[in-house]
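Q: What structure does this chain adopt?
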Amino acid sequence: MTERDTTSDAALSRAWHELQAALRAFFARRVAAADVDDLVQECFLRVSQGIAALREQDRLGAWVFRIARNLVTDHRRRHRTGDGEPLAGEDVIAAPDEPDANARVAEWLASMIGRLPAEYAGVLRESELHDVPHREIAERLGMSISGVKSRVQRGRAMLRDELLACCVLQFDARGRVHDYERRSCDSCDC
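A:
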């Protein structure tokens, strides 16, 4: 084994330990303490089974925490009685501090749109926040409809990247945000 192999092995081992600590903290806030180790182990198992299919290696963290959120959701479903109440002995998981997490994240989006490049921010603001049809935006700006659609699509992608860099979001079945975990960032007002 070369010195370079030893160094990269040590770095990989350190990264896995840091990820394990982050996952333990993530699960500890959401499930009973007795279930944390099992969920961490299950998460690492799913990561090892699916890592070869991951296309964007720089999105590893977001992908791992998406697996973790899905595990929490599955765990909660398994541990509910028929009436939707937690089983006896299960810790009740508190809802986020905000009464409506979806509305809170929507507030962040408005300020985050303002941080995008001007050609995307204006089109995205009109389309998404004011529900102006693409045809009307195109007429106002003297652009083609496909040009407007392209800017909206690119703006959404930039906005999504900023939001995912800022927070880990958990969605309900309707696609509404029902929980979020804040990361340290300068992108939003969280």
